[in-house]
Design brief:
The protein has 348 residues and is an alpha/beta fold. The chain is 51% helix and 9% strand. It folds into three domains: 106 residues, ATPase, nucleotide binding domain (Nucleotidyltransferase, domain 5, 2-Layer Sandwich), CATH 3.30.420.40; 89 residues; 137 residues, no CATH class. It has a five-stranded mixed beta sheet. Helix 11 crosses helix 13.
Length: 348
């Protein structure tokens, strides 16, 4: 398709149907009949002159944005955090949402803080890590259920690792609870097998992405975290400064400055929650069990001494943010990580 863009189409993606509204350059709007949220319907309806299509990021935005780009349209995927005008609308409806998207897209797309979807290959590889995370969470919940039921009988299951729980704890289950818990232990055995299979897949993915080894240099950062970090960011050149990565993963504090007031607020929690959780887990290890000395550990422990009872929690988040910046910097530069680089400079 060729030709200038003369219209902006608001596209409110629903699970079953998608509402559409066209905003023209002269200010007119036209609400259109909803279409099914399937590829065939999109290909048929959007086979038209090039337009700017605005949609909200969600379950169907990835494939639909890729399809509409192939059809020659300019696609803008809006960040839902910037669409309070839609979510807090007193007269909210799918048709009204589509019209608001069209009007906002026609006015200034930058107001929508456009989201860039990662490629399909990276998305599929990242799904392996997320599937493993779901299996681990399922295992944790099943183990908690078993321990809770046995405690209710006045007994306790022995301490053991999560990996060996289905073998070690099963023989200690009271006979009266076996009919209830045997199926859970069978499920735990299958879950453990599935986790092992996902671990092997992740090992293969690490070989596929050599930069994982560079990103995983800091002590406390494992291959899984480095792989998820790489696949979530996908392109190391998308940030002009490494410091922007902290904000990208939602580890930057919110701002609500007005006049002389500038209160200290919680972090934004924007971006991918899975990556943010992994980074915080790494920070927790660095400040806790890790005994390897490093600049980031020293800085975090010093920060944890200040600020009262919540100081350690804030220090953990601050270390996670600094770790994200460090990992991106190593990825971009390819340098060898020096744990005590700053300390050596200070000593010199």
């Amino acid at each position: 398709m060729a030709g200038p863009i003369t219209a902006t189409i608001g596209c409110d993606l629903g699970d079953r149907k998608t509402s559409l509204c066209i905003a023209y350059a002269d200010g007119r709007t036209e609400r259109c009949k909803a279409i099914p949220t399937v590829r065939e319907a999109f290909e048929k309806w959007f086979t038209r002159p090039p337009a700017r299509v605005v949609m909200e990021a969600g379950t169907h935005s990835r494939w639909s944005s890729a399809l509409l780009t192939e059809l020659g349209h300019e696609v803008i995927v809006a960040n839902p955090r910037r669409l309070r005008l839609i979510s807090q609308n007193d007269s909210k409806s799918d048709e009204a949402d589509a019209e608001l998207l069209a009007r906002l897209g026609r006015a200034d797309p930058k107001l929508l803080a456009p989201v860039r979807h990662r490629g399909m290959e990276a998305q599929c590889d990242l799904a392996v890590a997320k599937a493993r995370d779901t299996l681990v969470a399922t295992r944790t919940r099943l183990i908690g259920t078993c321990r809770g039921m046995v405690k209710a009988m006045g007994r306790r299951l022995p301490k053991c690792t999560a990996e060996s729980f289905h073998r070690t704890a099963r023989q200690h289950v009271p006979s009266e609870l076996k009919p209830a818990l045997d199926p859970i232990f069978d499920a735990l055995e299958k879950v453990e097998t599935s986790i092992a299979a996902e671990d092997r897949s992740i090992k293969e993915l690490v070989k596929k992405y050599p930069d994982v080894e560079v990103i995983a240099q800091p002590t406390g950062v494992g291959e899984l975290t480095a792989l998820v970090f790489l696949l979530t960011l996908e392109d190391k050149t998308r940030f002009k400064k490494s410091r922007s990565v902290g904000a990208f993963v939602g580890l930057r504090s919110k701002k609500k400055a007005s006049g002389d007031s500038d209160p200290e607020l919680r972090i934004t929690k924007a971006g991918d929650p899975f990556l943010r959780r992994l980074l915080v887990q790494c920070a927790n290890y660095i400040l806790g069990k890790c005994r390897a000395d490093s600049d980031i550990r020293r800085w975090g422990l010093e920060l944890a001494k200040r600020g009262g009872k919540n100081a350690r929690k804030r220090a953990k988040v601050a270390v996670a943010r600094k770790l994200a910046v460090l990992m991106h910097r190593l990825w971009v530069s390819g340098e060898e990580y020096e744990p005590l680089r700053r300390a050596k400079r200070a000593a010199a």
